[in-house]
Amino acid sequence: xxxxxxxxxxxxxxxxxxxxxxxxxxxxxxxxxxxxxxxxxxxxxxxxxxxxxxxxxxxxxxxxxxxxxxxxxxxxxxxxxxxxxxxxxxxxxxxxxxxxxxxxxxxxxxxxxxxxxxxxxxxxxxxxxxxxxxxxxxxxxxxxxxxxxxxxxxxxxxxxxxxxxxxxxxxxxxxxxxxxxxxxxxxxxxxxxxxxxxxxxxxxxxxxxxxxxxxxxxxxxxxxxxxxxxxxxxxxxxxxxxxxxxxxxxxxxxxxxxxx
Length: 260
What we know:
This protein is mostly beta strands. It contains no helices and 15 strands.
């Protein structure tokens, strides 16, 4: 939020969420005891800053997107493709018959996007992404390849060449190889969780009909409770329920699209 105190001075207040990616770290233990591993996590914290600023240089009027002849948007619809990385908690691949330790992994994927621009401030935005890596397993709530969907509003400001927006898009994360049955032959199932993608969007418009887009987001995933089928003996001692939890993810995507 910026409050103008004059033509060149203003007070600025920023309230934001900072995402921190802590990767796995292995460190040496005392001689004869092996090595220890601190598993990674995506942490989040609130950051508040305030200050006084002064504009320098000549003051010029901002180009208005809605003036006749200056609009760079030929129509309300946008379609496009994208590629990106999702950093999210997952279980590690191990070779011993017990639960896997949790870690932070980077999932690479691609997808498509459709948007409808209501006006220069507001749009309805949707995306489907498929993350094709599958480097984790043996988890009652997470495992295998990921299908992600997000659908919601995008609001901000757009000029003839550049647009900057905030997004809040509820959706889902669906895993295709969840291990919720530990009886032979150890079948896997698909499990879908509620998720919310919110963050920032920066768009560039090289021509009237093209858009280059960059998404920076926080993906909050709400993992529901999972019922697990397990043998009666050690180490599970029969069926049990894995309780639900919320996890933080960092996501970056970039792509190209068409407007019509």
